[in-house]
Amino acid sequence: DADVTQTPRNRITKTGKRIMLECSQTKGHDRMYWYRQDPGLGLRLIYYSFDVKDINKGEISDGYSVSRQAQAKFSLSLESAIPNQTALYFCATSDPQLAGGNEQFFGPGTRLTVL
Amino acid sequence: AQSVTQPDIHITVSEGASLELRCNYSYGATPYLFWYVQSPGQGLQLLLKYFSGDTLVQGIKGFEAEFKRSQSSFNLRKPSVHWSDAAEYFCAVGDWKAAGNKLTFGGGTRVLVKP
């Protein structure tokens, strides 16, 4: 009964391939986020969306794109994967009524390896 | 711009001993502060949060943290660690004034528990 789910949980792909990571949530939150985690760097924001018609770049958006298909779904795409995109990717949601949207709820993560 | 520093990359502690993880932040106003834990192969779980009020906050799993404005710190403590506390811990600060309510994470502290 996870509130934020991510698929796939693990993916190995080759350089140059297009990859899509999917996130779904049942929390009813309007705001959704994509982060990547690298050792020693914590989590860094890739993209975020405040509603279906709103998409914003985060601090490391180069090489990524996103799609907000519905309130509950937010997908991250790597158009042409490269090895330095190997990382753990997290989706998160927030509700502006909770700490102004600062309290975020995370999915279990997708481990992506680009060979 | 806000920033978060976790000075200790690794900490090793004996089971039953006390634990303190350091977190220093840089932010121009009173921030929203969070501690998350990531167990091996798992996603991020919120341990505790501080928004305002009492500067000593209690969280789950027996953890507590103290906000010290004068030191720009939000250190996490546990009086007696259990083997299951072996994990990576992330401190994060939320910027309630910024578009996107961006969470900025520290680099993480990995805790090893010796029997």
| Morphology of chain B | globular
How many DSSP E strands of chain A?
A: 11
Determine the structural class of chain A based on helices, strands and strand pairing. Answer: mainly beta
Q: Segments of chain B where pLDDT lies below 50 for 5+ residues?
A: none
CA(first)-CA(last) distance of chain B: 41 Å
Helicity range of chain B: under 10%
Pair of chains with the largest interface and how many residues each contributes: A-B, 26 and 25 residues
Count of β-strands of chain B = 12
Most strands sheet of chain A: 7 strands, mixed
Write down the overall mean pLDDT of chain A.
92
Share of β-strand residues of chain A: over 45%
For the record, give the distance between the C-alpha atoms at the N and C termini of chain A, rounded to a whole number: 33 Å
Which percent range describes the beta-strand content of chain B? Answer: over 45%
Q: Helix-strand pattern of chain A, N to C?
A: EEEEEEEEEEE
| Spatial extent as radius of gyration of chain A | 13 Å
Which residues of chain A form runs of ≥5 with pLDDT under 50?
A: none
Task: Give, in order, the helices and strands of chain B.
Answer: EEEEEEEEEEEE
Q: What would you call the quaternary organization?
A: heterodimer
Structural class of chain B: mainly beta
Topology summary:
The complex is a heterodimer of chains A (115) and B (115).
Chain A lengths: L3 E4 L2 E4 L5 E7 L5 E8 L3 E10 L2 E4 L7 E6 L2 E6 L8 E8 L9 E3 L3 E5 L1
Parallel strand pairs in A: 2-11
Antiparallel strand pairs in A: 1-3, 3-8, 4-5, 4-9, 5-6, 7-8, 9-10, 9-11
Chain B lengths: L2 E3 L4 E5 L4 E3 L2 E3 L5 E7 L5 E7 L5 E3 L5 E5 L4 E6 L8 E8 L8 E3 L3 E6 L1
Parallel strand pairs in B: 2-12
Antiparallel strand pairs in B: 1-4, 3-9, 5-6, 5-10, 7-8, 8-9, 10-11, 10-12
Describe what you observe in this structure.
The complex is a heterodimer of chains A (115) and B (115). Chain A has 115 residues and is an all-beta fold. The mean pLDDT of chain A is 92. In chain A, a hairpin with a 3-residue loop joins strand 4 and strand 5. The N and C termini of chain A lie far apart (33 Å). Chain B is an all-beta fold and 115 residues long. In chain B, 0% of the residues lie in helices and 51% in strands. In chain B, the strands form three sheets. In chain B, strands 2, 5, 6, 10, 11 and 12 form a six-stranded mixed β-sheet that branches. Chain B has a four-stranded antiparallel β-sheet with strand order 3-9-8-7, with no helix packed on it. In chain B, strand 7 and strand 8 form a beta hairpin. Classes of the chains: A mainly beta (115), B mainly beta (115). Chains A and B meet through strand 5 and strand 10 of A and strand 5, strand 6 and strand 10 of B.
